[in-house]
Amino acid sequence: MLIYFCATTSQSQTYQQSYLEIIQTIEKLGHKVVYEPTEENTRQQQQTMSPTERQAYYRKFLQHINKCDMVIAEVSYPSSINIGYRISIALEKNKPVLALHAKDKASPFLDGNISDRFLYEEYSPSTLKKTIERALNFAEQHTDARFNFFISPRHINFLDFISRKRKIPKSVYLRELIERDKLANHDYNE
C-alpha cells in the first residue's frame, strides 16, 4: 500500500523521533511511505514561498492524497491546522485515515469523529507496530475499488447537477444509490 504520512512541522524537535519510528514501522511492514520533510527549516521555507510556489505545494499535497491508499497522521500536537485539513481532505476523498497521538495527548475534537474510515489511536513505542498493523488491515478492508464507468452526457449533466445541489462528490451520490438498492434487495448476502 502507498501511505501518505503527515505531521506538524512546528513540533518536529519534540516529536521527530516518533515521526521517524512511525515511518520506519510502516516501511518495515512492507509499505511505501510518502511524506514531506518534517524539519523546522521546511516550515520556514513554506512561510517564504511565493504565491505560485504555494499553489504548487498545495497541488503536490493533493496529488499525494489522491494517489495514496491511506493517510497516517501524527496528531499529538492538537492545534495544527495543516494536519487537520489534510485529514479532512483525505476523508472527503474516502481515504482511510489513522490519526496517532501520544499518551495524554488526545484531542476531544478528533475523538468525536465518527467517520467509518477514521481511526484515532493512542500509541507508544511498544504499541506502535501493532497499532499500525491493525490500521493497515482496516485500510485494506476500506479501500475503494476503481473501475471505468461510461455514461452519456445526459447522465453526467445530472450527476453534475446533483453534486452541486447536494454539495457532495458524484461518487458519494452513486455509492448512496448502490447502498439503497442493496438494502432493498433482501436476497443479497454480503
Describe this structure in words.
By secondary structure, the protein is of the alpha/beta class. It folds into two domains: 2-142, Rossmann fold (3-Layer(aba) Sandwich), CATH 3.40.50; 153-184, no CATH class. Helix content is 54%, strand content 14%. It has eight helices and five strands, in the order βαβααβαβαβααα. It has a five-stranded parallel β-sheet, sandwiched between helices. Helix 1 (12-28) links the parallel strand 1 and strand 2. Helix 1 packs across helix 6 (128-142). The mean pLDDT is 85.
Tally the structural domains. Answer: 2
Report how far the terminal alpha carbons are from each other: 25 Å
In the CATH classification, which architecture of the largest domain applies? 3-Layer(aba) Sandwich
The quaternary structure here is single chain
* Average pLDDT reading: 85
Q: Classify the helix fraction into a percent range.
A: 40-55%
Number of strands: 5
Order of helices and strands: EHEHHEHEHEHHH
- By CATH reckoning, the class of the largest domain would read Alpha Beta
Sheet of most strands: 5 strands, parallel
Rg, nearest Å: 19 Å
